[in-house]
């Protein structure tokens, strides 16, 4: 089997430089590539364009990169719950492109699957469609949305093997599988990296062909954004 | 006049046996609490779960198990997880039977605005534009008027649109209305609310035909 394992996060992020476009998996703080984000801070790469559904919170997730002013542009569907983000956006330091969540997923998937663009009904008749090609199919209007082009995709999975096969857990799956293979280099970090033959091929969510580098993350905080419980009684 | 819980209770009656339902944030989330328990319904959350259950007991929260509002959740037997592209395939592909969401404004032609107020910090549309562009059956849950007392049921939306001509039904604290070719058709009144009250609170064209019954909650 082709070996995708790299020793550590430093090796995993080799080649990342200023002004690159990065995809980062996760929804809210669930399923974000925590170790890759920490290493991006260590590297100090600036002028980054980040494609990610959300922008983290002030002191976690992509919020950490915002604090260091490493991000030039965010491409997201929802960016609330982050004061530093708001400050940089309103002051014009940060460029923000807001796009519908399903369109974000599909622009990743199109890049992964080799489609240059897709037609979606989402956003037709709204400011999201301004300047974009539209077309009538069977009496309904659609907007042409182009596949993303990115340098790196940073993925968080639950388990992976050295061939780069990945399994996700719960709703931390979200955008992660759609971003695999959607950038020039896909880097997957996993909570548990297991030897070849350990994972059941029937249960693989993403085959290793979509992944160039895989490593086991040194530490996961897995912070909960909205802890919502019901009383035991 | 209904409160938010009342609106949720009335909308719960629109949820039918065998439905897959997507609930938006706010009043729509409350609907799950009032669906009859003798019918089978599955709740979808667009971050990637079908078969959502109640909130977890304290101490049983899982960072890998949240809903689209980023709240911790549980799953019911038979639940499934999937990626974001598949989630929106369910939505865009019209496999979800009913979408319930909030709104800032609805126009008499079914246009909806619920994501952006010019001059204020824009948080983004999340999945709302995908949901409203595709769902065949959309119910809006909202107050009839805004905090200034101005109607939210308009001839034309003033705020930036989320989707065009997509809303079918609206349940407010005052009334149940259907969007028709000719405007908002009044179907039911909230308890203690008169037709005159509803007329005053509705800027868009209001169609009143025959007796308008009071809601049964």
Automatic annotation (TrEMBL), chain A:
Top-level lineage group: Bacteria
InterPro entries xrefs: 3-oxoacid_CoA-transf_A, CoA_trans_fam_I, CoA_transf_BS, NagB/RpiA_transferase-like
Entries under SMART domains matching the protein: CoA_trans (SM00882)
Keyword Transferase: yes
UniProtKB keywords: Transferase
Pfam families for the chain: CoA_trans (PF01144)
GO MF term (any one): transferase activity
UniProt entry tagged with the keyword NAD: no
Family, per entry: Belongs to the 3-oxoacid CoA-transferase subunit A family.
NCBIfam families from the UniProt entry: pcaI_scoA_fam
Name of this chain's protein: CoA transferase subunit A
UniProtKB/TrEMBL annotation, chain B:
Keyword Transferase on entry: yes
Alphabetized UniProt keyword annotations: Transferase
Keyword Acyltransferase assigned: no
MF terms (GO), sorted A to Z: transferase activity
Family annotation (SUPFAM superfamilies): NagB/RpiA/CoA transferase-like
InterPro entries linked: 3-oxoacid_CoA-transf_B, CoA_trans_fam_I, CoA_transf_AS, NagB/RpiA_transferase-like
Pfam families attached to this UniProt entry: CoA_trans (PF01144)
Protein family (similarity comment): Belongs to the 3-oxoacid CoA-transferase subunit B family.
NCBIfam families for the chain: pcaJ_scoB_fam
Designated name of the protein: CoA transferase subunit B
Originating organism: Flavivirga aquimarina
Source taxonomy: Bacteria, Pseudomonadati, Bacteroidota, Flavobacteriia, Flavobacteriales
């Amino acid at each position: 089997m082709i070996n995708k394992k790299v020793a550590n996060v430093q090796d995993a992020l080799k080649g990342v430089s200023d002004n690159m476009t990065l995809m980062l998996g996760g929804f809210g703080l669930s399923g974000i590539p925590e170790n890759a984000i920490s290493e991006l801070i260590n590297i100090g790469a600036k002028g980054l364009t980040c494609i990610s559904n959300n922008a983290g919170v002030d002191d976690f997730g992509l919020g950490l990169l915002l604090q260091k002013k490493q991000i030039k542009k965010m491409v997201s569907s929802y960016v609330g719950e982050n004061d530093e983000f708001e400050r940089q956006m309103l002051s014009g330091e940060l460029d923000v492109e807001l796009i519908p969540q399903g369109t974000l997923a599909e622009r990743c998937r199109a890049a992964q699957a080799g489609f240059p663009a897709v037609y979606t009904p989402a956003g037709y008749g709204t400011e999201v469609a301004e300047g974009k090609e539209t077309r009538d199919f069977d009496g309904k209007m659609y907007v042409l949305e182009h596949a993303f082009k990115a340098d790196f995709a940073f993925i968080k999975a639950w388990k992976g093997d050295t061939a780069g096969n990945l399994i996700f857990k719960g709703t931390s799956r979200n955008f992660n599988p759609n971003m695999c293979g959607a950038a020039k280099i896909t880097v997957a970090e996993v909570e548990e990296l297991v030897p070849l033959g350990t994972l059941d091929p029937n249960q693989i969510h993403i085959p290793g062909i979509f992944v160039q580098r895989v490593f086991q993350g040194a530490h996961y905080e897995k912070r909960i954004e909205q802890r919502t419980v019901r009383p035991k009684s | 006049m209904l409160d938010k819980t009342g609106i949720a209770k009335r909308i719960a009656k629109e949820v039918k046996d065998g439905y897959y339902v997507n609930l938006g944030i706010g009043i729509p989330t409350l609907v799950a609490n009032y669906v009859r328990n003798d019918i089978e319904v599955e709740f979808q959350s667009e971050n990637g779960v079908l078969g959502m259950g109640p909130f977890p007991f304290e101490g049983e929260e899982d960072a890998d198990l949240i809903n689209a509002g980023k709240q911790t959740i549980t799953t019911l037997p038979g639940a499934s997880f999937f990626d974001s592209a598949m989630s929106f395939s369910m939505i865009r592909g019209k496999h979800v039977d009913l979408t319930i969401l909030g709104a800032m404004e609805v126009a008499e032609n079914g246009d909806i605005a619920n994501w952006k107020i010019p001059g204020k910090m824009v948080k983004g549309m999340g999945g709302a534009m995908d949901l409203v562009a595709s769902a065949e059956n959309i119910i809006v849950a909202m107050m009839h008027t805004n905090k200034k007392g101005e109607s939210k049921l308009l001839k034309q939306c003033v705020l930036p649109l989320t989707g065009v001509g997509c809303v079918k039904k609206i349940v407010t604290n005052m009334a149940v209305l259907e969007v028709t070719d000719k405007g908002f058709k009044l179907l039911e009144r909230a308890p203690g609310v008169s037709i005159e009250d509803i007329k005053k609170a509705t800027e868009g064209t209001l169609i009143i035909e025959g007796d308008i019954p009071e809601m049964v909650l």
